[in-house]
Design a protein that fits this description.
single chain; alpha/beta; nine-stranded mixed beta sheet; 10 helices; 36% helix; globular
Length: 289
């Protein structure tokens, strides 16, 4: 097992050349519990954000739950461009227009944890959306002048309960394998997340790396709270039933990490094309209030 004990202060706004200019990032799933942190943190860093959401009003309300009155602060939301639509049903041509000009795409999509989200269609919300986004990136960047545009970064939020399709994880205990098999058969979200991870593991055979580079970030048990320093590992370090005692990750920390991947070339080069697992650092120093 390899790990990287990351002090996020190492990736401050002036630490790498990739951070010297303002970025444009597309966030999908911005009204979710993690996505709202991604949107707000990017805006606070003065980057331009495009967001595909079903409801602009709900997105603004979610931003206010993180930072009160942020949705009415023109210095924050003035750099936010929203498209009200379901990406699952959006025409491909329209999606290509939204993707065009973006330096990165951050995907925080997930199924609602209620009866409809767990058991009813759409069954492949994440997988189909990821495929559409990759296709849009491919088309847009194929039209760019060769060598004039760096590859778009694609960052997908997964879970450490989903195995690395490339085979880098340790074999789980029998009880855990049985549980995951049941989840795969009974609950739509787990099967969808596995399918999305599988697609991303082979996406470079469909979309050339000269047009798109990717990674799937796998947080361990998600909790609410402020962003902290974090540790990253190349595979899960805890059992499926260990709970937060074996490690946890605040949603704000996951957002912080995803943004660090967008902005920091050194960090990106270390993990692109992989399925890193993230934990809040055991020290737990808060870096974002």
């Amino acid at each position: 097992m390899s790990s990287s004990n990351l002090d996020v202060s190492d990736y401050s706004a002036d630490s790498t050349s990739s951070q010297t200019k303002r970025k444009r990032i597309l966030v999908v799933g911005g009204t979710g519990q993690t996505g709202k942190h991604v949107v707000l943190q990017l805006l606070q860093r003065r980057h331009n954000v495009r967001a595909i959401v079903r409801s602009k009003e709900r997105l603004y309300n979610q931003l206010d739950t993180v930072l009160p009155d942020s949705a009415s602060n023109i210095h924050i939301v003035g750099r936010l461009q929203t498209t009200e639509a379901s990406i699952h049903a959006m025409p491909q041509e329209e999606l290509e227009k939204i993707v065009d000009g973006c330096d990165a795409v951050v995907v925080c999509l997930g199924h609602n944890l209620n009866f409809r989200g767990l058991f009813l269609p759409p069954r492949r919300l994440v997988t189909d959306s990821v495929q559409k986004l990759c296709s849009a990136i491919d088309v847009v960047n194929s039209n760019a002048l060769e060598g004039k545009k760096p590859p778009t970064k694609m960052i997908v939020m997964g879970s450490d309960g989903v195995a690395d399709p490339l085979g880098g994880d340790d074999r789980r205990k029998l009880s855990e394998r049985v549980t995951l098999s049941l989840l795969r058969r009974l609950l739509i979200p787990h099967a969808d997340n596995e399918a999305a991870a599988s697609y991303m593991s082979s996406v470079s055979s469909v979309v050339p790396t000269s047009r798109m580079e990717w990674l799937v970030l796998r947080p361990t048990d998600l909790v609410n709270g402020s962003a902290t320093k974090y540790d990253m590992f190349d595979k899960p370090t805890k059992g499926l039933f260990d709970g937060t005692k074996g490690g946890k990750t605040t949603r704000a920390t996951v957002a912080q990490c995803m943004i660090d991947f967008v902005l920091t070339d050194e960090l990106w080069e270390s993990w692109k094309g992989k399925f890193p697992v993230i934990h809040d650092s055991m020290g737990g120093d808060v870096i974002v209030k």
